[in-house]
Design brief:
This is DUF6879 domain-containing protein. InterPro entries: DUF6879. Pfam families: DUF6879 (PF21806). It contains 6 helices and 5 strands, in the order αααβααβαβββ. It is of the alpha/beta class. The protein has one domain. A 5-stranded mixed sheet has the order 3-2-1-4-5, with helices on one face. The longest helix has 25 residues.
Length: 169
């Protein structure tokens, strides 16, 4: 995890999105490849002292091999991909039951460009299931912000905040 303590104003315990974005690249720490980001995400999420988990997602395209719903989406089998979301309902329920038992609040902000990519249309169906289980999700729509969708370090990263840790990809 990058050490973001140097970019926070005095008296602030957890990193903020604005502080990370405003910080020079060398103060942010390295951007993590997807595999390492997911590993860090899982480790942070499992920490017992964490009471909130915030995630900002900005990617307009993403690959989720191994997730049957995404696999069907990727084959352009839309109806099948939506139907397959039902397969993950038990796993999502377990995740939210666990979060509730730990007093963990899950929040997500999802930035989308208009018109949305096919991936984002599919992802909204997945996020609908997460909202039904208790995740707090807000969608923010933009329109044609040059460079915003570029991969880091030029574009805006996906950020996860878990207590005092921040992960970027």
């Amino acid at each position: 995890m990058p050490d973001v303590s140097a970019v926070e104003p005095p008296g602030v315990d957890a990193p903020s999105i604005s502080a990370l974005v405003a910080a020079p690249p060398e103060a942010r720490g390295p951007f993590l490849p997807v595999r390492e980001y997911l590993q860090a995400f899982r480790e942070d999420y499992a920490r017992p002292e964490v009471t909130t988990f915030d995630k900002l997602e900005c990617g307009q395209h993403f690959q989720e091999p191994g997730f049957s719903s995404w696999e069907a989406f990727n084959r352009e089998a839309w109806r099948e991909s939506v139907d397959l979301i039902k397969e993950v309902q038990p796993a999502i329920k377990r995740q939210f039951d666990d979060a509730e038992s730990r007093g963990l609040v899950l929040r997500r902000a999802r930035y989308i460009e208009l018109p949305p990519s096919d991936y984002l249309v599919w992802e909204m169906a997945v996020l609908r299931e997460r909202v039904s289980r208790g995740e707090h999700i807000r969608v923010v729509a933009g329109q044609g912000r040059p460079g915003f969708q570029a991969p880091p370090p030029d574009g805006f990263p996906n950020l996860s905040f878990s207590g005092p840790s921040a992960s970027m990809s």
